[in-house]
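Data deposition worksheet. Section B asks for the primary sequence of the deposited chain exactly as it was used as input, without tags or linkers unless they were present during the calculation. Section C holds the resulting structure in token form. Section D is free text for depositor observations; keep each observation to a single sentence. Incomplete worksheets are returned to the depositor.
Section A, Depositor: J.P.
Section B:
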Amino acid sequence: MDNYIRNGMILMCTSLTYENSQGDHFLSRTMDFAFELGGQPIFMPRNQKIQGDAGAFTTKYGFVGAGRNLKHYIFVDGVNEFGLGAAALYFSEYAKYVKEAAADKLGIAPHDLVAWVLGNAKSVADLRELIQNVQLVDVPVSLLGLTTPLHFIFSDPTGETTVLEATSDDLHLIDDPVGVMANSPQLSWHLQNLSTYGTLVASQRPLHNYEGFELATQGPGTGALGMPGDYTSPSRFVRTVFNKHYSEPAADTPTTLNLLQHLMDSVTIPKGVKLKDDGASDYTQYRGYMALDDRAYYMEPYDNQELQGVKMTDKMLNEWDTPVEYPLDHQVHINQLN
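Section C:
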């Protein structure tokens, strides 16, 4: 479990859930990494046998998400045919995995868990029961040559949102009351840390006169003075909760996706502004958006901010039996008006 530290592979991501005014639910995430992951949207049909790195497992349900074929398909986020969404984020220094699964448990490699969940659980409630029979095994992913320390966020069309943090051999889901997740430390720490910023508001704060001196206003935005602006996990968590809470409600799917893009802007990392010790740049390689009620997945790569989506259809679910990869368009799109 120390390999990812020695190799400097520190993945920083942010995720949030959202319910629009029509009652539709969404899960979105940034994928921040220095190593080029090369992910793209992939549709995984029903009833697949996947030769995972900790052993083979089967799936029952179809799903679509961001992944890559590395001897077998590995997914880091996605949504299934019942609207269950999932995303994996780095959990450095806190994730603990077993060396070998117990005889009465199914052993899953951490990087294979998203595919297993989306292929076998209908909802968060369903997953609460299923996850009790699973253990995460300390097995490296071939692309990186290391075991990835991960935690996971799950949400479904009921709005229930939970987090899975593998800090012991037995796995269980933790309720996420704010529907936001970043990286280390644990969710409980982030929720406690929110109290430090609990007085932040969207409105302008009134100024007080000191010693008879009338202070000049700094204008709108003073209610958020003190909100952290760096790219650390605690700061990204606080900013995302604040912006999610105070943003104007979105009505339909297009306006919700547009809002989520804006919410993700505050935690999106441009190339070059966050460097590792070896000089490599962690940056937001893509942003993923899961429309849970629509059973649709949208991907927004770094070099093309146009949403590129795949929506599961009954034909895909009932008739297709082979995974389908959807190459991304990485060309910058400019709408010239003259």
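Section D:
The radius of gyration is 21 Å.
The domain at 3-198+249-325 is CATH 3.60.60.10 (Penicillin V Acylase; Chain A).
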